[in-house]
């Protein structure tokens, strides 16, 4: 199902929607935990927020980075890039899993505010730096990054090869 959804809507928009949904869910979880002692029904709000958090993760930040990493690198460095991405993914999962209880003990009901703040940073980074890769070749994606770093007159390798054929 995710593959069809990604192809229809695009990687970047799903990634951003997932991050924003997770951010809102984390804020709702924080509010639910803070108000739990005053309103017993806040436990249900918190549970719904947790389910939504997981759903939004599965729509965006769970699978989309695997698509994007595979599309951002050419055939040569792609296996190394995927290995580094996998290592970072599992290392962060391990750190969160090992440290969450200690952070929860320190922060109390505000523990998910940390996640909300990080999700805001991730959302802003993705909004300004992550390109849409749907339907684009590696050369087109690389050209997007080159335009941001090189002067407008810089040529891609493909354009350079075409130019030498015309001469």
TrEMBL record:
Primary location recorded for the protein, binned into one broad class: membrane
Keyword Transmembrane recorded: yes
GO BP annotations listed: D-glucose import; dehydroascorbic acid transport
Gene Ontology annotations for the cellular component aspect, listed alphabetically: brush border; plasma membrane
Compartment annotation: Membrane
Entry membrane topology: Multi-pass membrane protein
Highest taxon in the source lineage: Eukaryota
GO terms for MF: D-glucose transmembrane transporter activity
Membrane-crossing segments per the record: 14-35, 41-59, 80-104, 110-128
Pfam family, one: Sugar_tr
Domain Major facilitator superfamily (MFS) profile: 1-134
Key words of the record: Membrane, Transmembrane, Transmembrane helix
Protein name, entry field: GTR2 protein
